[in-house]
Amino acid sequence: MIAVAVVDAETSGNVGTIARAMKNFGLRDLYLVDPPDLDPEGEAYGFAGSAREDVLPNATETTFDALVEEFHTVATTATTNEDARKHVRYPFETPAELAESLSAVETDTCIVFGRERVGLTNEELAQVDEVVSIPASADYPVLNLGQAATIVLYELRDLTVEETQHPDAIERADESDIDGLHDQFATLLERINHPDGKRAKTRRLFRRLLGRAHPTPRETRTLRGVLRRASQFAEPPTDGDEER
Amino acid sequence: MIAVAVVDAETSGNVGTIARAMKNFGLRDLYLVDPPDLDPEGEAYGFAGSAREDVLPNATETTFDALVEEFHTVATTATTNEDARKHVRYPFETPAELAESLSAVETDTCIVFGRERVGLTNEELAQVDEVVSIPASADYPVLNLGQAATIVLYELRDLTVEETQHPDAIERADESDIDGLHDQFATLLERINHPDGKRAKTRRLFRRLLGRAHPTPRETRTLRGVLRRASQFAEPPTDGDEER
Question: Phi, psi (5° rounding) for residue A2?
C-alpha cells in the first residue's frame, strides 16, 4: 500500500492539488501533519476535483513521528547534497527509480511531502528511509509543491493504478489489409504513369512511411478507398477484374 | 525547439503553473491563444515562481491557426477515443512515447494545452498532428490543466533540460573499500564469538545487503569505523597486527 503525507502545508490549495493527483493515480490514503484549515468552501476542496468526495474528507491527521513508525517513508526534495560528504539528502533516487525499487518489495510506504518554501527540515529528512528528487533544470530546479507531488505520483502509477482509461493497445490494421493498401498504391502508380524506373523506390518509400505509423484498421480502410477512387479516376477501368 | 501553447485558459493561475513547469524543465517559448488577463499582481505571476521573470512576460499572443501553420502540433487530452472507429482522439501516445518519438526527429514542436473544463474542441483536435494522453486511473482520469502540463513537460525533460541539478551519478565506494568493510565484519563475527557454523552464512547475508545498496565512500568509511571500534570493544587487541 502506498500512502501520501503532507507535512505542515501553508496553503490549503496545495493539499487539494495533491488530493486530486492521488485520485488521478489510484491512491486513497492521505495523512496530514499540522494541516492548514481545510474549509469545505475553501481552496483545498476547490482544487481537489472529485477527490473532494473521498480522499480529502477521509484524510487522517497525524504526527511526523507516527508516520516514521508506521511506514517505510520516502521524502521528496528539490535540493540534494552534491556528493557523498553529506547524507541528509544523499544518495537520492529519481521518481522513476523509486517506482522501480518499490515494485520489487511488499511494504507499506508513505510518500512524504514537505512545506511549500522550505520542504522538509534536515531533522525530518534524517528520519525518513529514502530520499527522492525530481531531475529538473539546474537553472530552476525548485518545483511547486503540488506539481512535484503530481510528478512523483504519476511515476508510481504502475504500482497504484489498477486500470487506466486507455485501451490496452492501439488497434493496428491486419497485415493483410496493409498489404492490400500497398497493392492499391502500386496500382495507382501504374494508372498515373509514375515513371517506370521510380515505381519500386516510391513503393518502398510509402512502405517505410506506413511501417513507422502502424496504421489502424480504419486508417487503412479509408486510405484504400481513396486510392481505389484515385485509380478509377486516373484511368476508368475497362474490365471488371482490374478493380479490387 | 519545443514550445508550449495554452488555448483559451479561464484562470490565470493555470497559465502561471504551466510557465513554472516550463522553466523547471528547460522550456522558454510560451504562446497564448485568447489568454485571460495576466496582471503582474495576479495569480499567473503568483503561481509562476521565477518564471515570472522571463517565461511569462515574454509570452507571445497568437492564434490557433498560426500555431498549426508554424509548428508540428501535439495536443493533450484526458479523454481518448476507445478504438479505431473515430480518429479525432485516436490513436494517441503516452507522454513517454511522445518523448521517445520526438527524440528521433528535428522539428519545431508545440505542445498545445486546452481549456480547463473542456480541453480542446474536436475541431481544434482535428487540426493538430499528434494526440497525447496521460495514463491515469479509469475512475478519475481527468487531471487539472496545470498538473497535466507539468507531467507532459516532465516527460520531455531529456529533450529540453540541458543540465539538471543532480550530480551525474551517485558516488559509489571503491570495491576495495567495500571489501575491507567485509573483512572487518568477519573480524567482528570472530571477536563476538558468532557461532562458527553460521559465520559464512552471516557474511554472505551482509554481502548481499550491501550489494543491493551500493554504499557510498562515506557510508563505507563510517561503517568500517563502527565495526573497528565494535571489534576493539568485543576483545581488546593484544597485539598490533590484529587491528587494521
Answer: -115, 120
pLDDT tens string B46-55: 999 999 999 9
Tens digits of per-residue pLDDT, A24-57? 999 999 999 999 999 999 999 999 999 999 999 9
Choose one of B129, B160, B191: the last residue of a domain: B160
Query: Angle B142-B147-B150 (CA atoms, 0-180°, nearest 5)?
Result: 130
Parent domain of A86: 2-160
- Percent of chain A, pLDDT > 70? 94
Q: Is residue A35 a contact partner of residue A9, using CB atoms and an 8 Å limit?
A: yes
Q: How many domains does chain A have?
A: 2
If you average pLDDT over every residue of chain A, what do you get? 90
Residues A143 and A208 in one domain: no
Whether A231 and A184 have beta carbons less than 8 Å apart is answered as yes
Residues A155 and A180 in one domain: no
Model confidence pLDDT, tens digit, residues B1-45: 999 999 999 999 999 999 999 999 999 999 999 999 999 999 999
For testing contact with chain A, the best of B147, B153, B157 (most A CBs within 10 A): B147
DSSP 8-state class, residue B195: -
Would residue A193 be called left, alpha or beta, if left means φ above 0 and alpha means ψ between -120 and 50 degrees?
left
- For residue A67, give the DSSP letter: H
Q: Does B25 touch chain A (CB under 8 A)?
A: yes
B-facing residues of A in 68-107 (CB < 8 A) are 78-80, 82-85, 87, 90-92, 94
Q: Is residue B165 part of a domain?
A: no
Assess if residue B167 is contained within a domain. Answer: no
A170 falls within a domain: no
Q: What ipTM, to 2 d.p.?
A: 0.83
Examine residue A33 and state whether it is found in any structural domain, yes or no. Answer: yes
Q: Which residues contact B240 (CB under 8 A, 6 or more apart)?
A: none
Global confidence as pTM: 0.86
Around Cβ B209, how many Cβ atoms within 10 Å? 10
